[in-house]
Design a protein that fits this description.
It holds the Pfam family PilN. This is Fimbrial assembly family protein. Keywords: Membrane, Transmembrane, Transmembrane helix. By secondary structure, this protein is of the alpha+beta class. It is built from two helices and four strands, in the order H-E-E-H-E-E. The chain folds into two domains: 66 residues; 67 residues, Gyrase A, domain 2, CATH 3.30.1360.100. It is rod-shaped. The N and C termini lie far apart (132 Å).
Length: 174
């Protein structure tokens, strides 16, 4: 058997030597772990960059779709405006048609119509002549009684050799 006996006293290690020992033995593990983290972050950065590129391509595709569809949307809005205008005109025509039917249904046979004017603000001007003043008066009273117009005015009435010439103004058929 062989024993090794060292009779020399052990040298005390200084703090610098202890730090150097620690750095040499354990720092390599820390550096390897740090390098692995850096490599992981590097690959993660590639993933993020690819997502950013994909999102930019998606935005470009959607922008192109909007640019393609925009003229169609503009045309659709123009068509919608025209259709609304057409509906307004049709509604006015239907209103005028109802007003005309109403007037023809109550118009007395003894009254002669000589002029019939209408304007954009729903005003109707009737010019005519009546042989009997009572028939004109009954027609005027019936218009007032049924209240289908917002205002009814007898603009003028003149006695002639044949009968009575009149001008009647009717506003806004209800």
């Amino acid at each position: 058997m062989k024993y090794k006996i060292n009779l020399l006293p052990q040298k005390e290690t200084t703090i610098a030597e202890k730090v150097m020992f620690f750095l040499l033995n354990y720092l390599r593990y820390i550096i390897v772990i740090t390098q692995l983290v850096v490599i992981g972050v590097f690959f993660y950065r590639f993933q993020i960059d690819q997502k950013i590129i994909d999102l930019k391509e998606s935005v470009m595709q959607k922008k192109e779709i909007v640019e393609i569809v925009l003229p169609l949307l503009n045309e659709a809005s123009r068509i919608d405006q025209k259709s609304q205008e057409i509906n307004k005109v049709i509604k006015k025509q239907q209103n005028f048609n109802e007003m005309l039917k109403y007037l023809l249904s109550i118009f007395p046979e003894t009254v002669t119509l000589s002029n019939f004017e209408t304007s954009d603000d729903d005003t109707l001007k009737i010019t005519g002549s009546a042989f009997n003043s009572r028939h004109l008066q009954a027609f005027f009273a019936l218009l007032k009684k049924e209240n289908r117009f917002s205002s009814i005015e007898l603009k003028s009435i003149k006695k002639t050799a044949v009968g009575y010439d009149f001008i009647l103004s009717l506003n806004k058929f209800k």
